[in-house]
From TrEMBL:
InterPro entries: 4Fe4S_Fe-S-bd (IPR017896), 4Fe4S_Fe_S_CS (IPR017900), PSI_iron-sulfur_center (IPR050157). Residues 2-31, 32-57 form the 4Fe-4S ferredoxin-type domain. One of its GO terms (molecular function) is metal ion binding. It comes from Plebeiibacterium marinum. This is 4Fe-4S binding protein.
Length: 57
């Protein structure tokens, strides 16, 4: 399975993706979103919710 990837250059650390992820797979580390692939179920929600489009397939 392929997982979403956060572009750390673009991530503003707003935390929206952390809030929307139903699997609690995203946390902020040093102000940047980090996706835990062990928890991610590839639902795609975070991709659409990131206000700056920093999460890609
Ligand atoms: S929603 Fe986007 S900008 Fe905000 S923390 Fe997540 S990846 Fe970063
Ligand atoms: S694809 Fe879904 S489960 Fe995976 S990190 Fe994004 S919101 Fe969470």
């Amino acid at each position: 399975m392929e997982y979403p990837v956060v572009n750390k250059e673009e991530c503003t650390g707003c935390g929206v993706c952390v809030e929307v992820c139903p699997m609690a797979a995203i946390e902020l580390i040093d102000g940047k979103a980090q996706i835990n692939n062990e928890k991610c179920r590839n639902c795609g929600l975070c991709l659409g919710e990131c206000p700056v489009g920093a999460i890609k397939d």
